[in-house]
Amino acid sequence: MPAIGHRATPQPSYYNIWSSNCHTEANFFTAVASARGITAGILVCQGNPESDAQFHTANWMLDGKGRTCIYNWGAPCCWDASASPPDISTGKGQECARLACDKQYDWS
Asked: 40 or 54, which is more confident?
């Protein structure tokens, strides 16, 4: 079992990058969300997962309460927003994206 902080328990599914890799987990999370009628997507950190496999991916999801949450390394980071895809260019959305991407965040 991975260390606390590397396994989140969001709805609609666990996000556990240690079970395979972050790209597989991000795709699984999005597929489960779609099957349950939940709006969700993949946050790609500084690259395209199709051609830049070294770049980390996380998930975002609309929680049905007017909030967007990014799931990544543990507890979700949420803010009041309901756009799909979410606006992560400023404010709390940008803060949550930076937390998810860490040093790979460089979207200037």
From this structure: 40
The number of CA neighbours under 13 Å toward the Cβ of 39 is 14
Can you give the pTM of this predicted structure? 0.74
What are the Cα distances from residue 47, in Å, to 32, 44, 52? 24, 6, 6
DSSP 3: P
DSSP 8-class letter at 17: G
Give the separation between CA 26 and CA 42, rounded to whole angstroms. 6
Say how far apart CA 55 and CA 83 lie, in whole Å. 24
Q: Which residues face 77 on adjacent strands? A: 70
Token code pair at residue 19 = 């079970």
